[in-house]
Amino acid sequence: MTLIAAALSSAEETAASTEDRIAAAIRRAVLTQQLPSATKLPESKLAAIFDVNRAVVRAALIRLSSDRIVKLRRNQSAIVVSPSAEETAQLFSARRTVETQVVRETIGHLPNAARHELEQIIAAEQDAHLAQAHNQRINLSLRFHEVIASACPNRVLGDILQDLVVRTSVAVALYKVPGMAACYRCADHHGIAEALIAGDTASVVERTEAHLHYLEQRLNHARSPQTVDLATILGG
Questions:
Q1: Which of 23, 64, 142, 220 is the most exposed place for a label (fewest CB within 10 A)?
Q2: Where in the chain is the domain with CATH 1.10.10.10?
Q3: pTM strictly above 0.85
Q4: How many CB atoms lie within 10 A of CB 58?
Q5: For the segment 80-116, what is each residue's pLDDT rounded down to a tens digit?
Q6: CATH number, domain 3-82+224-234
Q7: Which of these, 216, 234, 229, 218, lies nearest to 99 by C-alpha position?
Q8: What is the topology classification, in CATH, of domain 85-217?
């Protein structure tokens, strides 16, 4: 490889790494309720915050758009998505259908590594809840469902669930009733994992449905517009 080629390759790797960092920061800010729905994400402002050019920011926003976390608009700034009440209801309905089928098909096929990770997540979630480590608990909650999706022997269903977990989690982050505790009941994930490991199909399906209904019932779409400081939220 020539020096020029090596330099170009290094620059591309750096850009990709920075793109990852920007996308991860915005995703984390949305899922942890720091960026409300419809928040504008101007490329110039993000470029200044992350000290990169706008092309790198644009690539990160395109990735987030494919994950349905931000919405790209022609000749306007991208914004954090604002799923309607109807769309959110449809997302939860779809997730209940898919996730209950995923747990049905995963019973009897849960790898030991996945079982061990679920047990670790449940313990860590409880610790994070008691310590009021809200952001950490949210990440653990997402991971709990991702592990189940990844363990499903039907990879098409597992991949669909991965997408729905992110999209419903965005809706929960954007529309959870303000001032209420994190969407967390210590028995929910423990009960789902316990039934899944025990091979109790009826119980794991019932617990999964109850858990998702509980999350959906805590949403409030009548939210007031909020102004945020992107530099404070994303620049840390």
A1: 220
A2: 3-82+224-234
A3: no
A4: 16
A5: 998 988 999 999 999 999 999 999 999 999 999 999 9
A6: 1.10.10.10
A7: 216
A8: Four Helix Bundle (Hemerythrin (Met), subunit A) (1.20.120)
